[in-house]
Amino acid sequence: MPVTTPIAINPGGMACGANPGSAVTPDYRGQFPFTGTLHSVTVDLSGDLIVDAESEMRMHMARQ
């Protein structure tokens, strides 16, 4: 989603390792927070879109 309204997607603000929002479906029970160790977190506010050509190619190939 290159252009969104961030507040509509995640009204709780930024979360690392957990998603405190509502479940996507009532069939999903419980929260499973990340229990590992985050050694670094990078937040890029430059406004430039991150392009991952290799992942894009895998996505297109998977659709064929």
What does this structure look like?
By secondary structure, the protein is mainly α. Helix content is 22%, strand content 0%. It has two helices and no strands. It has helices spanning 6-9, 53-62.
Output mean pLDDT: 75
Order of helices and strands: HH
Which ranges are low-confidence, i.e. pLDDT below 50, for 5 or more consecutive residues? none
Number of strands: 0
Work out the strand percent. Answer: under 5%
Q: Give the helix proportion (percent range).
A: 10-25%
Estimated radius of gyration: 16 Å
Distance between the termini: 22 Å
Number of contiguous helices: 2
Largest sheet: none
Determine the structural class based on helices, strands and strand pairing. Answer: mainly alpha
The dominant shape is: extended
Highlighted features:
64 residues; 2 helices; extended
Give the topology, please.
Elements: H1 6-9, H2 53-62
In short:
The protein has 64 residues and is mostly helical. Helix content is 22%, strand content 0%.
